[in-house]
C-alpha cells in the first residue's frame, strides 16, 4: 500500500467503533434535546429519567439535592413514591457513601446485595424489592457536589456501566440541581438535622 492509499476494513469485520456508537449517541441526543425543551420541572425529570433509562436502565430512579453546609439531602424526584417518597430529607455524615459521592465527587457502584447493605440505611427494604445494585452519579457545579442521580436495579446491572457517559449526563442536569438548591436552603433551615435518617 502506498502512502496515498486509504486503509481497507477487513472483509466481514465489525464496523468501526465510532459508527457503532452513532445510533446510541443519536438516541441520547434526542433525550438531551427533550430535556432542553422541557417547559416545567415534571417534564424535565421525565426527560432525565428517560435519558438514564436509555443509557443504563433502572427500576428505581431518584434525584437528591445536597446542601453541603448543612450536610442535608432532599429528594427532588422519585420514580416510585412507595419506595422513596418525594420531598424526604436525609442527613449525611462521614459514612463511606457520603465520603465517596458527596465529598470526593466520585461515582459509586453497588454490584450486589452485600454492597447495598454496606452503604444504605434502607438496604433490606431495597433488597426485598429486588433492588440489589446501584449506580450513583454525583452532580457538580462550580467544583462542588450539589446532588446525585441514583439508579437502582437487579444485581450486577451496572457492572459495565459507562462512567464517562454518566458524568456527561450529570453535567447536563446541573442547572436543575442549582435551582432546586435554593429551595433546599430555605426549607432546611427549619429542619432539626438530628431527627433525620442518615445516609
Automatic annotation (TrEMBL):
SUPFAM superfamilies xref list: GAF domain-like
Protein name, per record: GAF domain-containing protein
Residue ranges of every copy of the GAF domain listed in the record: 83-175
Organism: Paracidovorax wautersii
One Pfam assignment: GAF_2
